[in-house]
Amino acid sequence: MADKNEYNRVLDKFYEYLCGILKIYQNAVPILKDELDAIMKDEVERLDESLKSQQALLLQTKNFDRQVADYLDALGIKAKNLSDMAGQLPKEEGLRFFGLLGEFDLTMAEVNYYKDKCRMLLQSKLYTIDKVLSRQELPKDNTTYNRSAAEIHGTLFPKAFEKKI
User: Average pLDDT in the 33-49 region?
Assistant: First the structure.
């Protein structure tokens, strides 16, 4: 990049963009905590609201890879990831970006921790529900009628619905 001021302007905009993305993930942590609490308390409506909030936050990160690639192109940097990029910057700027990447690591570890807890708890609850449903017996002899109004004796659900995947 020919102009040093333009380079610094783009670099500052890139840093601000990454700070915004970090803030989105930091805002996701309380939402994930709320989701975990909703799962533990079997509050389906609250769980639904939590999931909607997460979707709204994560939609803001939709074009992250493309945005990063655009900034790297504008800066004239070829890097596989942000750590490589920060290593190619002048020392002071590199340290600033490495500090931000450290915050990303901590935040993403927390996000992943709560996502895993939510996933495991949901799987456990779904397994319990499946066990309860499998213990319940379907009525054995239900009378239904075919098109000619003749009685047909059979189970409430066809066998196809009883197959486990």
Answer: 91
